[in-house]
Design goal:
Transcription Regulator spoIIAA; 6-stranded mixed sheet; 20 strands
Length: 433
């Protein structure tokens, strides 16, 4: 199911869940690769108590009454027999992660105490690391990393690295891929003040060697903006990697403001192709820029409904501005809800490929030892009661098979999905500044 691996170059990268509702970050499916975090031992709470609490929370709150086809009681009883034989916390937390993963909904997840702390810091935008500041992806088996966006003000941007550049080698080592399928992106991390040698290529140009000095960076997911000038009009472009940071909605508004300050727009392209979801308030904040009113509802297994209510918060005609939304297999969770509501309400045309169809809503539960359970407890339904769970969103303008899956290898100005959106918005293609 996962075609691209998104990599945030941080010191600890967590494989987390998809969307969150009332509190911190949920990096989702597709996930960054996992690095093992150091676990702080807890003396006051036993492993058995944490297991019982976790099992009871799933019994009481999980969205699927049949536990998604899993014999949950048998799983918990088996784990209860095993846990007393476990002496170290790291092994126990790994087993709790496997237990929740066995539910198979691709959303619910477990975090150790340290991982929960890292999650809170990332959500607050205070997760610091030392590196060069790039947001990169893998494309199938291509032997390079593709830069989706440099971190604003970071060393990579200062060195001239731009969106869609390819990082071919890192200190002489191919960026991707090893015999086991893993990449070498973490070689861009290191000590502050040290240098890393990169072989970088802009599509259509010769490779160039760059030496970039690593620096301390506070992670903030980049929002990439671009302005396309075509014979049919001016179109703004926004790349939103996720909804899981507390500033995403406000920075999206600021990005649109910046584009409008440069001149009127005849349309806007919202790129959600790598967006794996995030937090409810970021979802509603962005929806309010483009539409308003009733956007469907969230349903618990007990039949309780929570309406998705959208308050209009336009900026210079954004409620009526022609809108194209780019989607694909990596569009998941609240990103799917965002695109789906805009499509359902007639506010946007969806361009690209069918989405994942994974839109359960997670709720956070703090466990007694400081660990955290994010559990799927609600299903999203459109205003007419239909669901996209398991089937995904269907694009209004599908891409031909010949250009699917590898859009990231193209420059922005040649990206087939962007060109299709530009054609729909203005009847013209090409251009950009």
């Amino acid at each position: 199911m996962k075609r691209y691996t998104l990599v945030l170059l941080v010191l600890v990268i967590l494989s987390l869940g998809c969307e969150t509702v009332y509190a911190p970050l949920g990096l989702g499916s597709p996930t960054p690769r996992t690095m093992v975090a150091t676990v702080v031992p807890t003396a006051d709470v036993t492993h058995e108590e944490v297991l019982r609490q976790l099992c009871d929370l799933v019994r009481e709150n999980y969205v699927y009454p049949d536990y998604n086809g899993v014999d949950w009681d048998a799983k918990c009883n088996s784990m209860a027999d095993l846990v007393p034989t476990i002496e170290d916390d790291a092994t126990f937390y790994a087993l709790m992660d496997e237990l929740i993963e066995s539910l198979g909904d691709d959303h619910s997840y477990f975090l150790s105490p340290q991982e929960a702390e890292e999650e809170d810091r990332a959500w607050a935008g205070s997760l610091d690391y030392v590196g060069i500041g790039v947001y990169v992806t893998r494309v199938d088996d291509k032997p390079f990393a593709v830069v989706l966006a440099p971190m604003p003000g970071g060393p990579a941007e200062a060195a001239g690295i731009r969106a869609r550049d390819r990082i071919l080698t890192i200190d002489g080592t191919p960026a991707c891929c090893n015999d086991d399928g893993s990449d070498n992106f973490d070689l861009m991390l290191g000590e502050k003040g040290t240098e890393v040698r990169l072989l970088v290529q802009t599509p259509g140009e010769a490779p160039r060697e760059l030496t970039v000095e690593r620096s301390s960076i506070t992670m903030q997911l980049p929002i990439l903006t671009h302005r396309f000038t075509t014979p049919g009009g001016n179109v703004g472009y926004l790349f939103l990697p996720s909804l899981d940071e507390s500033t995403i909605a406000s920075r999206t508004r600021g990005a649109i403001r910046h584009l409008l300050d440069e001149g009127p727009l005849d349309g806007l392209i919202l790129d959600l192709r790598t967006n794996y979801g995030g937090e409810y308030r970021q979802l509603t904040g962005i929806l309010g820029l483009f539409t308003e009113g009733y956007g469907g509802y969230f349903l618990t297994r007990g039949g309780e409904q929570r309406p998705l209510t959208i308050e209009a918060d336009p900026i210079d005609g954004s409620q009526t501005m022609p809108l194209a939304v780019l989607i694909g297999p990596e569009t998941a969770s609240y990103a799917e809800v965002l695109a789906g509501v805009l499509q359902f309400k007639g506010r946007a045309t969806l361009v690209g490929e069918t989405t994942e169809g994974n839109v359960e809503t997670l709720h956070a539960h703090a466990l007694a030892d400081g660990s955290r359970l994010w559990l799927a407890e609600e299903a999203y339904l459109f205003p007419d009661g239909t669901s996209m769970e398991g089937r995904g969103l269907q694009p209004d303008i599908p891409l031909p098979m010949s250009v699917k899956d590898e859009w990231a290898i193209y420059p922005l100005e040649e990206d087939p999905q962007i060109l299709a959106a530009l054609h729909w918005l203005t009847g013209a293609t090409g251009g950009g500044d």
